Amino acid sequence: MELLQLQYFCKIVENKSITKAAQEMHISQPAMSNTLKRLESNIGVPLFERKNNVLTPNDYGIQVYKTAKQILNTLEKSRRTLTSSPAIFGKLSFAFYTHSMTIANYMEQYERLNPGISFEIISGSRLKKDISFSNVDFLLYSDTSRTTTTDQYHYVVLEDSNFYLVVPKALALFSQPEILFEDIPRHFAELPFCFMKRREDQLENIYWMFTEIGFSPHVSYLTDSLSLKLTILQQGLCLGIVPSPDMALLSKQPHLQLIRILHPTIDSRLYFAWSDSIMHSPLALSFQTFVLDILSK
C-alpha cells in the first residue's frame, strides 16, 4: 500500500467521483482509476458501491477512509513541524527542462533565509528525457518541454511565458514588434543562430519546431548554459529565441530588437512539480511550502 493510493482514495471519497478527484489532483482519470484498483487489490475487497455514476464508500471503504485520514493528518502535522524548524541544512535538487528567472529568484530568497543549504540543478546535456523523482526533488518544465516521467506528480503553474526572437540590429532590421513563427525563415534564413544543447545530440525544442516547417537554422553557437547563451545574444553575435522570463537582461540593450513570436503553441506555461509518492526531506518540504505560500498571495 502506497501513500499516494491513500491520498487519491480520500479524494475519490470526498468528491464521490473518480473524474472530479482526478481533476483536483491534476492527473488523468485512467491514472486515478488504476490507483484505486491497485488499492482494492492490495486490501482484497471492493471499497465502493457504484450507483448512477456516484461512488459511495461501502463499510470497508468507510473504515479505510477513517484510517487513511488519520495517517495523512499525522503526516501533515509532522511535515508542518519539520518545515517550521528554524535551522535547515542540506541540498535541494532540481531538473530544469526549461529556465525561469522566477524560480531562480525564489531559490535566492530561500537561500537568504536558510544560508546552510545548497542547490543542485540538472539541466542541459546532463538532463535525460525521462527522469524519476527518486533522483530529484523538483521538476521545472513548460508546455513545450519534450520530457516524460513515469512518476505521478503534482504541479502548480509558475508563470505564463511568451517567446521572443532576439535580433542584433547590426545583422538585420525588422520593422514590426511581432512575427509569425513560420515567417522567420523568410526574413532571417541566412543569419547565425544560438541554441542550447539539452542533452547529447539534442538541441532545444525550438530548433526542432523550425525543422518541422522545413527550416534548418544556421547554428553558429551551441551551449548547455543559459547564462552563456544570454551573454552571446547580449553581445549581438547572432540571433536566438528566448522566453519572456529570461528577457530582463536583453531588454535593456539598445542594439537588440526583441520581436515577439506568434505561434499557436509556442506561448507556454511554466510548471513547478513534485511527487507525493516518495518521502521528501524536511528541506524539500520546506521549500515546497515556501513556493506555494508565495504563489498563493
Could you explain the architecture of this structure?
- By secondary structure, the protein is α/β, with parallel strands linked by helices.
- The protein folds into 3 domains: 3-83, Arc Repressor Mutant, subunit A (Orthogonal Bundle), CATH 1.10.10.10; 90-159 and 269-295, Periplasmic binding protein-like II (D-Maltodextrin-Binding Protein, domain 2, 3-Layer(aba) Sandwich), CATH 3.40.190; 163-266, D-Maltodextrin-Binding Protein, domain 2.
- The protein is 37% helix and 26% strand.
- The strands form 4 sheets. It has a 5-stranded mixed β-sheet with strand order 4-3-5-14-6, with helices on one face. The chain has a 4-stranded mixed β-sheet with strand order 8-13-7-12, with helices on one face. A 3-stranded mixed β-sheet has the order 10-9-11.
- Helix 1 (3-15) crosses helix 3.
- The model has no long low-confidence stretch (mean pLDDT 83).
